Amino acid sequence: MREVLKMSAGHKQKVIRHTFSTVDAKVAETEFFLRKMAEVYMDPFSFNCYFSAYLSASRTTTLALQQFKHIPGFDRWYEPHRQRLKADKLAKFFLDTRNSHVHGGPYPVTRGQFHLGDAAYYFDQSVALPSGNPEDVVSVCRDYFVSLLEVVYDCYVNLGSHIDPQQYYTKENFAKNRRCIDDAEIEIYGWICTSLIEEGWGEDDRWHELRANVGECEINHLFYSYLGAPTPQPEVPDYILDFEYTPEERGWVHVPAGFSSIEDYIVHLRARTDVGQSSMG
Predict the structure, then answer these.
(1) Nearby residues of 91 by Cβ (< 8 Å), 6 or more positions away
(2) Which of 10, 16, 46, 214 is 20 to 30 A from 89, comparing alpha carbons?
(3) What is the 3-state secondary structure (H, E, C) of 79-120?
């Protein structure tokens, strides 16, 4: 991560540059502790430690997101999400649980079932879950994580050119401000890559090469595996697309917490959808 210099009391002070990777890291941190909970067997103490960490990480995900209010259009984009989270019973449950816990409240996870290597932990019977069903803690936490993940994903979709280098450094985005690949190369390298031009590289090739030297979303493995799609990818000609890496090669295949495979997770989602549709009918 790059650093910038900040003047403080007559001295140069190094300050970590604030980029959207902070939000990516908070999302990944939340999923890390969710996964750790799913891996715990007969160890209630460890499970509660991971649950405590999950509460804090999930809360700071939205707080980290709101640090980017300076982005054009952010407030207009975020307001519907803020209202939805405010009205969402699951979000309120986790906010209240986190607030109680960090102020010295008791651990709400007090029960567990263990059988043939599988474990399921449950909230105390005094805890009223939003769904009203006695779901295990990992399932409830996973549902909430997915709801947060959807918000961050939507940010990449609607504000991507402001937060994602792969969406910022495109021919289409630069053209909006009457800029071109020359301007992008100067922005990244400090010069126009005349050597590439002399070798016969076209504009699309130069854009593709430039994007290979800038950052990208760091949680596409979570978007791809939990939501079924990565962030919007730059448009490239077919002759370049033929040589693009597969999702597996890009490291996007990631088994969701609590499941043995992505296929099992998809079956789980379909079953829940079927149940929801039948109850509505």
Answers:
(1) 85, 144, 147
(2) 46
(3) HHHHHHHHHCHHHHHHHHHHHHHHCCCCCCEEEEEEECCEEE
Question: Would you state the structure tokens that stand for residue 228, as one six-digit string?
Answer: 């079924």
Give the contacts of 246 (CB within 8 A, at least 6 positions apart). none
Query: 12 φ, ψ to 5°?
Result: -80, 125
Residue in 192, 225, 190 with CA at minimum distance from that of residue 206: 192
Q: What is the DSSP letter of 225?
A: I
What element of type H or E holds 121?
strand 118-123
CA distance 47 to 59: 18
The Cα–Cα gap between 273 and 95 comes to 26
**Both structure tokens of 178:** 């009457």
Of how many residues is the chain composed?
A: 281
> Can you tell me the distance from the alpha carbon of 203 to that of 226, in angstroms, rounded to the nearest whole number?
35
DSSP label of 246: P
- Of 269 and 280, which is predicted with more confidence? 269
The encoded tokens of residue 249 equal 């090669």
Q: Could you tell me if 22 and 42 are in contact, meaning their C-beta atoms sit under 8 angstroms apart?
A: no
The pLDDT tens digits for 2-30 are 333 333 445 555 555 678 999 999 999 99
Alpha-carbon distance of 235 to 151, in angstroms, equals: 24
